[in-house]
Amino acid sequence: MTPRSSRVPQHRVAETVAAELRARILDSGEDFELSPQEQLTREFGVSPPSIREALRILETEGLVTVRRGSVGGADAHRPDEASAAYHLGLALQGARVTLGDLASGLQLLEPMCAAECARRPDRLEAVVPALEANLEAAAGLIGDGVGFTGMARDFHDLIVGFTPNATVRHIVGSLVALWSAQEQTWAQARDERGEYPSEDDARQALRAHRRLAEEIAAGRPAEAERIARAHLAATQAVVLARFDDGVVKVASARARPAVNGSRGTRI
């Protein structure tokens, strides 16, 4: 009888190395740097193919980017709402979840974030100045359909990003990032065909944002939630009138920074 080999399969070695590297990335600070592959090979005492396979595992999870060629290496990335939105979007797209369903979910959750912003004792120092700066920038973009849409979506990002509860912030932020990607794609398509909504529509959206900012500043959570829900339903209706039966598409979700992406956590 041929004796059983005691050698651990390469894929199991790679999974063990990936688990250790994953823990380091998640537990690290923002300035974490992944060691060169040659150094990782020596550190873990495994073969180069095992290290490469471990990095491929982490690459599929969005935790590293492998640079190939003469300048090869790997860069580590801490996950944020953008990566969370991407993986959530894969699940929604795979389940054939429609934009209408995503919109309904946001109508339940996002207005609660507005209420929580209005409850913050530091809202006048931390929240309101950022909202007012966004409103000023958006006013200057009326007439630029795609630009205004992007700035208006940033307002929604801010509301979620200032929500104190981290769990809510990450979950709702992922949904907002998904919806924002769909809406930005819609805006670009409409603008290219000359079908973008009128400047009056943009001004109406801006007025709703101003009212919401005022209610947050005044510390009135119930009214802030009511205005946020009504405004969200109205703006979603414009997109859903054309794409209600469309399935959530994840492809563009990574292209647009989410709440805690390149703009930083706002709690």
Any chance you could write out the topology, listing elements then pairs?
Layout: H1 10-27, H2 37-44, H3 48-60, E1 64-67, E2 73-76, H4 81-94, H5 99-119, H6 123-126, H7 128-139, H8 145-161, H9 166-192, H10 199-218, H11 221-243
Antiparallel strand pairs: 1-2
Main attributes of the structure:
single chain, 267 residues, mainly alpha, Arc Repressor Mutant, subunit A, Four Helix Bundle (Hemerythrin (Met), subunit A), 2 domains, two-stranded antiparallel sheet, 66% helix, disordered C terminus
Number of helical runs?
A: 11
CATH architecture of the largest domain: Up-down Bundle
Secondary structure class reads mainly alpha
Q: In percent, how much strand structure appears in the residues?
A: under 5%
Choose one word for the global shape: elongated
Low-confidence stretches: 1-6, 255-265
- Estimate nothing, just give the exact number of structural domains: 2
SSE string, helices as H and strands as E: HHHEEHHHHHHHH
Q: Give the number of DSSP strands.
A: 2
Q: Measure the end-to-end span.
A: 65 Å
The CATH topology of the largest domain comes to Four Helix Bundle (Hemerythrin (Met), subunit A)
Condensed summary:
66% of the residues lie in helices and 3% in strands. The protein has 267 residues and is an all-alpha fold.
Describe the structure in your own words:
The protein contains eleven helices and two strands, in the order αααββαααααααα. It has 267 residues and is an all-alpha fold. The protein has two domains: 67 residues, Winged helix-like DNA-binding domain superfamily/Winged helix DNA-binding domain (Arc Repressor Mutant, subunit A, Orthogonal Bundle), CATH 1.10.10.10; 163 residues, Four Helix Bundle (Hemerythrin (Met), subunit A) (Up-down Bundle). Strands 1-2 form a two-stranded antiparallel sheet.
